[in-house]
Amino acid sequence: LGSDRLRSSFPPLPPSSLSAVAMGFGDLKSPAGLQFCIIGRYVPSQADVAVFEAVSGPPPADLCHALRWYNHIKSYEKEKASLPGVKKALGKYGPANVEDTTESGATDSKDDDDIDLFGSDDEEESEEAKRLREERLAQYESKKAKKPTLVAKSSILLDVKPWDDETDMAKLEECVRSVQADGLVWGCSKLVPVGYGIKKLQIQCVVEDDKVGTDMLEEQITAFDEYVQSMDVAAFNKI
């Protein structure tokens, strides 16, 4: 099978006699049967596939023609479904007057889907695909690690109001600045008159959005209730 160099030494029968003469290979799982496993054709076909699937494994080295045929057809493993012809029972091929006694010839393409005679090819492809995927993931992670991470920040202007005009504003600001947290940086401040001699503390801070929120600031600043009456957000800008 597969090429003119692997043609059988058995001459083909006349078309008129094919229907009347029994054909087969004997037991393809035995050395004797393997001696008859080469079918005379110029190109691989479904006949090769049918016989190939019935062979249990590579023929021994002393059956050089059968072994060459086996390796040749094995090279068409991924293309066997597209080979010409219609796959038939083993008894439809082989020399005349040789009974087909192979125990489990794989003539059903459905059975072939369940038995992978050459799983190593698929395994090699799978391992290769896995290796390439892991290399690409590693390259992506490496690029991602080198790329600087952008941290979302905001600039917040707070209005902190005292109880009255007698509140110690220096002490009030000290209390406000004592609030510390990861991702919080206090900035400049000033006192702004609000009426009746009362001044509020207007103070700026920069926060990392994922770490510090206005609710947290309000909760901790208003906890100094001896000095602080309330806290409002005067301005909030993303950086």
TrEMBL record:
UniProt keyword Transferase present: no
Limits of the Elongation factor 1 beta central acidic region eukaryote domain: 117-144
Swiss-Prot/TrEMBL keywords: Elongation factor, Protein biosynthesis
tRNA processing found in the keyword field: no
Pfam family, one: EF-1_beta_acid
UniProt cross-references to InterPro entries, sorted A to Z: eEF-1beta-like_sf, EF-1_beta_acid_region_euk, EF1B_bsu/dsu, EF1B_bsu/dsu_GNE, Transl_elong_EF1B/ribsomal_bS6, Transl_elong_EF1B_B/D_CS
Protein name listed in UniProt: Elongation factor 1-beta
Organism: Balaenoptera physalus (Fin whale)
